Amino acid sequence: MDLSTFDIDAPRWDQSTFMGRLKHFFNITDCRTALLPDSRLDEAKALVESCRAGSVPPGTTEEQLYYAKKLYDSAFHPDTGDRMNLIGRMSFQVPGGMAITGFMLQFYRTVPAVVFWQWVNQSFNALVNYTNRNAASPITPKQIGVAYATATSTALATAVGLNLYTKRAPPLVARWVPFVAVAAANCVNIPMMRQQEILNGIAVTDENGNKLGHSRKAAIKGITQVVISRVTMAAPGMIILPIIMQRLERYRFMQKITFLHGPLQVMMVGVFLIFMVPAACSLFPQQCSMAVSKLEPELRDSIISQYGDRVSYVYFNKGL
Fold first, then answer.
1. Which of 294, 316, 309, 286 is closest to 209 using CA atoms?
2. Which of 3, 40, 124, 287 is the most buried (most CB within 10 A)?
3. pLDDT, tens digit, for every residue of 113-142?
4. What are the TM regions of this chain, as residue ranges (predicted)?
5. Single pTM value for the model
């Protein structure tokens, strides 16, 4: 089969549908790819770049090209092409998220435990948010520090405040405090970590990739969708799992193995995240679109003056 004209960047599945995006994100969030050495990832990148240049090595199969693109998408930033740090990759969301979330749900009763695990979670989230930002909008070390400190403070204030407030509430309500804290922190962490996009706008293009300018409204839309996705990603495990654990803990056999409750919750969170990470990432297209009529007046007028009604939508990478 002649693969010299193979378009490796063409979506394998229809990205305009939820099911198509779900298949795509199940593919690139596969946590097994996080175990591969950098040398294997670099080989995949080299094969992808060779294919883009029209020089596929002899003997290469179509399936090998698809697998190389899977590794490339899972480990390299879509804007810069640079290899992302391991912990910040979406393929690390299941092992990283299951450990942290499981222990947040287990150790929610005392203030020191709440403070420690919320701090660990926000440190993890900050790294994920920075890694998956729209790289066309650089952020300074000072802004990263302010974003991290603000999000962590929000999570701690929410968690500790609610923890104290729910002392007299039903036990199940107290078990939901970690989720409220995580959701509140996500609403702060992501916009703060990507504040340059909100202040200066992100690059928008036409359907052919031609740059048309920078839009703050596009940035706000993209970041809002990312916040919704992240909260959705955490919600089932952090809302449903406490109900399951509360019922299980009534049984005598569970009362005899309290030392296993933490590991058990970690594993159950993992089951939720295996499905929720790709599902939450699939809620909105990564290549987001926005009608020209909804852009800032100056950018809208600039596009209309140059292209008339030939460009009705702009496109941009919303990040993950």
1. 316
2. 124
3. 888 888 888 888 878 877 877 666 667 778
4. 227-245, 266-285
5. 0.80
